[in-house]
Amino acid sequence: MTFEEIKALSGSIGLILFVVVFVAVVIYTFRPGTKKQMDEHANIPLNEDKDNG
Fold it and tell me: What is the full DSSP assignment across 30-44?
Protein backbone atom coordinates (compact mmCIF):
# COMPACT_ATOMS: atom_id res chain seq x y z
CA MET A 1 0.00 0.00 0.00
CA THR A 2 1.18 3.46 -0.79
CA PHE A 3 0.84 6.46 1.45
CA GLU A 4 -2.01 7.83 -0.66
CA GLU A 5 -3.98 4.58 -0.35
CA ILE A 6 -3.50 4.50 3.42
CA LYS A 7 -4.50 8.17 3.66
CA ALA A 8 -7.70 7.58 1.65
CA LEU A 9 -8.55 4.44 3.62
CA SER A 10 -8.06 6.15 6.97
CA GLY A 11 -10.24 9.06 5.86
CA SER A 12 -12.99 6.68 4.81
CA ILE A 13 -12.76 4.71 8.04
CA GLY A 14 -12.87 7.94 10.05
CA LEU A 15 -15.96 9.12 8.19
CA ILE A 16 -17.74 5.80 8.67
CA LEU A 17 -16.82 5.77 12.38
CA PHE A 18 -18.10 9.33 12.82
CA VAL A 19 -21.41 8.50 11.11
CA VAL A 20 -21.88 5.36 13.23
CA VAL A 21 -21.20 7.26 16.47
CA PHE A 22 -23.52 10.10 15.40
CA VAL A 23 -26.36 7.70 14.58
CA ALA A 24 -25.83 5.88 17.89
CA VAL A 25 -26.05 9.14 19.85
CA VAL A 26 -29.21 10.19 18.00
CA ILE A 27 -30.84 6.80 18.60
CA TYR A 28 -29.83 6.87 22.29
CA THR A 29 -31.20 10.39 22.70
CA PHE A 30 -34.54 9.81 21.00
CA ARG A 31 -35.37 6.31 22.25
CA PRO A 32 -38.77 6.17 23.96
CA GLY A 33 -37.57 5.46 27.53
CA THR A 34 -35.30 8.49 27.95
CA LYS A 35 -37.78 11.38 27.98
CA LYS A 36 -37.66 11.87 31.76
CA GLN A 37 -33.86 11.61 31.87
CA MET A 38 -33.40 14.04 28.97
CA ASP A 39 -35.84 16.51 30.58
CA GLU A 40 -33.79 16.39 33.79
CA HIS A 41 -30.58 16.96 31.83
CA ALA A 42 -32.15 19.86 29.94
CA ASN A 43 -33.06 21.60 33.22
CA ILE A 44 -29.60 21.37 34.81
CA PRO A 45 -28.64 24.98 33.92
CA LEU A 46 -31.92 26.23 35.39
CA ASN A 47 -31.50 24.54 38.78
CA GLU A 48 -30.19 26.62 41.64
CA ASP A 49 -26.67 25.93 42.76
CA LYS A 50 -27.04 24.32 46.19
CA ASP A 51 -23.29 24.22 46.92
CA ASN A 52 -22.88 27.99 47.26
CA GLY A 53 -25.41 28.25 50.10
Answer: HSGGGHHHHHHHHTG
pTM of the model: 0.63
pLDDT interval class at 21 (50, 70, 90): very high
Going by C-beta distance under 8 Å and a sequence separation of 6 or more, which residues neighbour residue 28?
34
Query: Do the beta carbons of residue 34 and residue 28 sit within 8 Å?
Result: yes
Nearest to 11 by CA among 22, 26, 19: 19
Sign of CA dihedral 26, 28, 33, 38: negative
